[in-house]
Amino acid sequence: MLRAKPEAIRAPAGFTDRVMARVTAADPRPVPAWLLAASDPVAAVGLTIALVLALLGSWWPERLLGGAALVEAWLWNGATDIARDLDPAILLTLVAMGGLLVLFVAWRTWRATERALVLALAGRRRS
Amino acid sequence: MKPEPGDVPSKARVETSPEERDWIARCRAGDSRAYRALVERYQDRAYALAYRMVRSRSDAEEIAQDAFIRAWRGMAEFRGEASFMTWLYRILVRLALDRSEVLKTRRAREVPVDGGEEPSTTPSDAGLSRRMDQLLGELPPLQRAALTLFYYEDRPVAEIARMLDLPENTVKTHMSRGRAALREAYERDERVIRGR
Predict the structure, then answer these.
(1) Fewer CB within 10 Å, N- or C-terminus of chain B?
(2) DSSP-assigned letters across all residues of chain B
């Protein structure tokens, strides 16, 4: 019964053109990695810091190290001054929160950069 | 290159041709012209399968288009373990099954309009085939999918099972129940016709 010759059903005219129009529209354009990473504000802060440190480190290493030592000393002195007057529990909480913030910024920066690189590579592959 | 519209593939002919392998490799490298060749080769089969599953011209085109778009987007993950056609059918059948549920609800609320939903057919297509199509359209989606793939698309049971994500025995059960329901509906129609 079902072995009767089936009706020949054709795709409507222009079907391929319509599919290809959508394929072209779906094709991701290459996007600069820095632009994508910068679209995430937290990642943008992280990237800016990383970029400034990288530039200083490559062009002006002794100043960077000197500057880092100054900042470290300033932070350390300031921190020890503050720490002296602070309740240890509050100090510990502040240190923990600071650590978490640094980790959060680093994680978001990493995620955004990774995503941007993947998209940029996919765009280059298809272009 | 392009198959005849009524050409039903044989179960034995599932090998991918060297030409198609080349198109697929180029598609994976992002060549949309190669993909155009694949779309041209499979557009009639994909559209016919979608139409038989949902029995609506506009929905069939949308489903077939969506299947081709998804296949293009997923081309990087296509490892060529199955043929492109099997992979495309798998995507299409799932889309059609999802759409069938929506259409079932929609049709329950609609008043049927004659003449608006018939696809273009060859002049030799006649009553029995059309009647079988109609009866097939009344079956539950999984039974319809299994029977359409087996009889119209000539796919083996193992491949249908992979497309539907079901064990082979479950596919056989759906086919058996579908056949029984078709036979019953056909005999009921015959009795009505003879009774006139």
Answers:
(1) C
(2) -PPPTT-PPPTT--PPPHHHHHHHHHHHTT-HHHHHHHHHHHHHHHHHHHHHHH--HHHHHHHHHHHHHHHHHTGGG--SSS-HHHHHHHHHHHHHHHHHHHHHHHHHHSPP-TTSSPPP--TT--HHHHHHHHHHHTS-HHHHHHHIIIIIS---HHHHHHHHT--HHHHHHHHHHHHHHHHHHHHHHHHHHHH-
